[in-house]
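Worked example 3 (structure in, sequence out).
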């Protein structure tokens, strides 16, 4: 790889040079692109592994009933309001259409290189640039390397004994086989997380039998199913301020949900409400017992559905809590030895969430001595989820500890993008060639963060994909999103080394002081 970059960082002419390479054309990558373009930076590329479509999560997750569990007026860009959302929580098609429309409106599609799977990225200290290699051997040389790959996109299918013997149809919720007609089939669904509780009630009426294998029950709360009337939509269109106020109200209501999560005592009230919902919906005591979680609400993601519990009143739906012993040619055998016949198995078993969640499958190499596979061996760690020590000019969206259980991740993305733009401005201001987070800043930030996680419900004893095997939570932002926004308002220059490269490749430290910026994300 290095062969194509000479000793002083001059780059072989067959390598494409860009100012910025963004990986991923989902909500994050597209937002980054829009803001770069707005700032007059047009020399960038979005590398997207899909052959033809943008949309990330909302391109991949097309299972029946797929919808966002954050209201779309909030789960959308602040700068691109949509007065036409049909309901509080519309289905995936509306969200995907919104992404496609926004991509075209801002003329972003021309920056997207499809079929461009990144297999390696290496920082060259002499040139101060990233050499990015694609699966087809193409290489790019970028000053800024921006990862917008999303934490949940590699489907996880557990290696159940006998899985390969299964002769029926089997697929993961994020790879739904729409060509396979489930009508009249005996279907086994494994997992009862956010995806399964959305698709199970949708398919239950058409299948012959639906058997749900549950390992851990989830706390489920009601979903606000209200639609927006034509009058609402006209009002939002005619008076954008009304739409913005509506968005603000949704934001504030969701934000308030973080307090029971941060303070376990408050969680009891919230749990009482969820418990009453369950009691009201499931009359059978035995079934109710099976569906009642034994951990504090909020520890795992709280799910919202009005259709999930009533689904169990159907005669063709069975809940199995015994665990899976093995999979045979035409059945799944539970831990008690009971055989459950199956024409199809659907894996609602989530996504790969070990430390690779943020590591990605490609080889990522920073300054000498830094490879992400090595540096994050014990777990992913960054600074506000955005920058990582030893990886200059690399930025991440929805990186470690910026996931949310209570509010819109788009709000986080927009704040991260604004922060990155401020970093770029700062680079211009100081004349630095690259910025590198100091290890001390990263360590201090993460110690504080882990301290704040103590005593929250996330650490109250359940097992979730938020936590690693050693119990460390590398996924969740432990606080209000408002606080996150406030803390990102300034680029703390002292947290970074600002390195200038002279013509011959010497590195100098640029001056340090705190940069103030007046830009911020509005609601
Ligand atoms: O995956 P999950 P998901 N044997 O990891 C079970 C987001 N999302 O695709 O709880 C048996 O939540 C596992 O059991 P347990 C959201 O952030 C958002 O549903 O680990 N079972 C669990 O029940 C969510 O958190 C929306 O004991 C096994 C299920 O599989 C994330 O995506 C909608 C097993 C996996 O649940 C992932 O959701 C949907 C095994 N070996 C999802 N391994 C929105 O609306 C796993 N399970 C935005």
């Amino acid at each position: 790889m290095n062969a194509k970059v000479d000793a002083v960082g001059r780059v072989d002419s067959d390598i494409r040079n860009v100012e910025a390479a963004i990986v991923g054309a989902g909500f994050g990558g597209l937002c980054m692109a829009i803001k770069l373009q707005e700032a007059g930076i047009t020399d960038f590329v979005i590398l997207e592994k899909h052959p033809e479509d943008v949309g990330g999560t909302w391109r991949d997750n097309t299972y029946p009933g797929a919808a966002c569990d954050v209201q779309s007026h909030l789960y959308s860009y602040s700068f691109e309001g949509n007065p036409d959302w049909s309901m509080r929580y519309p289905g995936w098609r509306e969200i995907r259409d919104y992404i496609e429309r926004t991509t075209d409106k801002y003329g972003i599609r021309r920056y997207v290189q499809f079929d461009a799977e990144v297999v390696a990225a290496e920082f060259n200290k002499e040139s101060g640039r990233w050499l990015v290699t694609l699966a087809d051997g193409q290489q790019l040389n970028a000053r800024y390397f921006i990862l917008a790959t999303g934490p949940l996109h590699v489907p996880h299918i557990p290696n159940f004994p006998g899985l390969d013997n299964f002769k029926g149809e089997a697929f993961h919720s994020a790879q739904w086989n729409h060509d396979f007609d489930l009508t009249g089939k005996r279907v086994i669904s494994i997992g009862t997380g956010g995806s399964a509780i959305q698709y199970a009630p949708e398919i239950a009426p058409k299948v012959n039998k639906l058997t749900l294998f549950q390992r851990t029950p989830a706390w489920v709360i009601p979903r606000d199913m209200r639609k927006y009337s034509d009058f609402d939509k006209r009002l939002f269109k005619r008076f954008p301020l009304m739409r913005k106020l509506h968005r603000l109200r949704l934001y504030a209501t969701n934000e308030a949900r973080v307090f029971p999560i941060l303070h376990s005592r408050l969680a009891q009230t919230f749990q009482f409400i969820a418990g009453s919902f369950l009691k009201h919906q499931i009359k059978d005591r035995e079934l109710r017992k099976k569906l009642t979680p034994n951990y504090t609400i909020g520890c795992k993601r709280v799910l919202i559905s009005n259709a999930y519990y009533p689904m169990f009143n159907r005669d063709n739906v069975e809940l199995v809590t015994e665990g899976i012993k093995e999979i045979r040619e035409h059945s799944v055998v539970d831990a008690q030895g009971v055989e459950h016949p199956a024409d199809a198995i659907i894996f609602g078993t989530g996504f790969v969430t070990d430390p690779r969640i943020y590591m990605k499958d490609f080889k990522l190499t920073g300054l000498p001595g830094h490879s992400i596979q090595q540096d994050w061996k014990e777990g992913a760690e960054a600074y506000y989820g955005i920058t990582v020590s030893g990886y200059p000019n690399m930025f991440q969206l929805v990186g470690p500890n910026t996931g949310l259980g209570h509010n819109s991740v788009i709000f986080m993305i927009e704040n991260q993008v604004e922060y990155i733009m401020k970093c770029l401005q700062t680079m211009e201001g100081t004349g630095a060639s690259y910025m590198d987070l100091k290890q001390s800043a990263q360590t201090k930030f993460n110690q504080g963060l882990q301290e704040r996680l103590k005593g929250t419900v996330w650490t109250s004893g359940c097992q979730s994909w938020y936590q690693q095997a050693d119990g460390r939570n590398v996924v969740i932002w432990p606080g209000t999103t408002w606080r996150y926004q406030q803390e990102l308002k300034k680029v703390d220059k002292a947290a970074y080394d600002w390195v200038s490269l002279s013509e011959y490749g010497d590195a100098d430290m640029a001056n340090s002081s705190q940069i103030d910026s007046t830009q911020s994300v509005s609601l």
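Notes: The first strand starts at residue 16 and ends at 23. The CA atoms of residues 271 and 297 lie 6 Å apart.
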